[in-house]
Design goal:
With about 240 residues, the protein is an alpha/beta fold. It contains nine helices and six strands; from the N terminus they run E-H-H-E-H-E-H-H-H-E-H-H-E-E-H. It is globular and about 50 Å long.
Length: about 240
């Protein structure tokens, strides 16, 4: 179909220090996640860097993207830079805040236990509104993320009709794209998100199929096994509490 991208791929960032801190806090029964820098500045772990290079070796053997875009958050942009350097693909890396991670407002850095303890009324409000439309105080709903991702896609369709776009972003971005590209209904999307892990440095991709897209790769991690980069399935900080 004219006027749309032919292929859209998304690489979730490699394992970050925030992923590790979140897992430690949740498993330790703590109220808060021990991250001192702001979310946008959280770095990759050494394993996360290895995972990013493994993505680069996958990219070296894949059809070349016409445009490469990364979230402005460091864990995603560093994954993209390491992958591009490893791949030898000569493409300018474009940073775009529209595919940054979801902002959690007052629930930022809280574990499931911490959110329930400090903001019990918010948990009740989330149950009433549903996870897709619930917006934490000072934060974003899933619908808010979908809206900004949709704006970026509309722009890419206009500028690169028939092209291939590769994004480096976050766990939430995968589900936003499924909602937009495949038309997955809200309830099915939330069920899928609850049941489907999105490993660090995994590749999810869609191919144009008429006016919509079909899922061509789902959380693909063969490149990690092949390159000896241990796969990790860590949630984003706060992703399960809001």
């Amino acid at each position: 179909m004219e006027g749309q991208l032919q292929w859209i791929g998304l690489v979730r960032h490699g394992e970050s220090a925030g992923n590790v801190a979140r897992e430690q806090a949740e498993s330790g029964g703590l109220d808060e996640i021990d991250i001192h820098e702001r979310d946008a500045d959280v770095a990759l772990t050494e394993l996360g860097e290895d995972q990013a290079r493994a993505v680069g070796r996958w990219l070296a053997g894949a059809p070349r993207p016409d445009i490469v875009i990364a979230s402005t958050y460091r864990r995603a942009s560093d994954t993209a830079r390491l992958a591009l350097d490893e791949s030898g693909v000569e493409r300018e890396l474009v940073l775009d805040e529209r595919i940054r991670d979801r902002e959690l407002g007052q629930l930022d850095l809280l574990t499931s236990r911490g959110a329930a303890s400090k903001y019990p009324d918010e948990q009740a409000r989330k149950r009433r509104l549903g996870k897709f439309y619930y917006r934490p105080p000072g934060g974003e709903s899933w619908a808010d993320v979908v809206l900004r991702v949709r704006f970026l896609l509309d722009e890419l369709h206009r500028r690169h009709p028939g092209g291939r776009a590769l994004l480096f972003a976050h766990e939430m971005t995968v589900f936003a794209l499924r909602y937009i590209l495949e038309g997955v209904p809200e309830r099915d999307l939330l069920d899928h998100a609850a049941e489907t892990p999105v490993p660090n440095a995994s590749v999810t991709a869609w191919e144009a199929d008429g006016p919509r897209y079909r899922l061509a790769l789902a959380q693909h991690i063969d490149h990690l096994h092949r390159e000896g980069a241990e796969p990790t399935v860590d949630d984003e900080p706060g992703s399960r509490i809001a």
